[in-house]
Amino acid sequence: MRKARYLGMWVIFSALLAAGWLGLAAVPNYAESPQYTVAIVDFNNLSGKYLPNIGTAANEVLGTLLYQTDKFAVVERAKLASIMEEHHLSMSGLVNSESSALQIGKLLSADYLVTGSIVSYEQNVQRVQAYGITTEQITADITVNIKVLNVNTGKLEFAIFTPAQTKMLNTSGAANLSTGNTRELLSKALTAAVDKLVTRIEASQPKLPEKALVHFDSNPSGAEVEIDQVYYGNTPIAVPLNPGVHEVRISLAGYAPWIRMIHAAEGAIVSCTLEKKAK
């Protein structure tokens, strides 16, 4: 009976997933300028329950959630499958072999490769019958495990178990969780994981130095200011620069250019007197 309940629920979910009605079958175009590229392997179902297409569903939901952070470009599942086929690898092979996962990640030019599994899935149904109507409260619990490999370093960057629960009332008499609630259940678990993943990755990145405002002036004024071969404007001008050494060229028609290496620091003043060119 329990297997029949799970089967009924997941057959409907799988059909809608395959048809694209849940918005999961095709990953949308991702952010124009994401910071990281990630490849996601279909999740393994370790729950012991018959849940058709749950691994693909988790893959698609996670891809959408990562996209919505505006920090990740997600490798298309078809591209991942093509590379794996060329190298005679299976999804389970990537999960079980860290070296294979890293190899595929590099071939895809990905920064991170995500593997995961559905660790547990439980569904509880409470029935109440009154006036000839059977009302059911369906409670579903899921626990998802996610691992994130850093393709560049070969190290495990992040790992987490995230549980989630959803409830619904059903008056149809059939103990099936709706497809919308099923997607909500996956989203709850994966959203918590994505939030922590983004925080972890951002914390691990080196902080960019604060800009130093450097003031440039010349005699005569109105001279063009180029820094590291990039034109910024005419003197007098203040330019925010990364701290450190920069090449500066200050030039004006009829005058010899002034070229120096400077060290940019907050509040620094660079002033020069231009000499007229010899006739």
From TrEMBL:
It comes from Hydrogenispora ethanolica. PANTHER family: CURLI PRODUCTION ASSEMBLY/TRANSPORT COMPONENT CSGG, CURLI PRODUCTION ASSEMBLY_TRANSPORT COMPONENT CSGG. Residues 217-274 form the PEGA domain. Keywords: Cell membrane, Lipoprotein, Membrane, Palmitate, Signal. The keyword Lipoprotein applies. This is Curli biogenesis system outer membrane secretion channel CsgG. One of its GO terms (cellular component) is outer membrane-bounded periplasmic space. The keyword Cytoplasm does not apply.
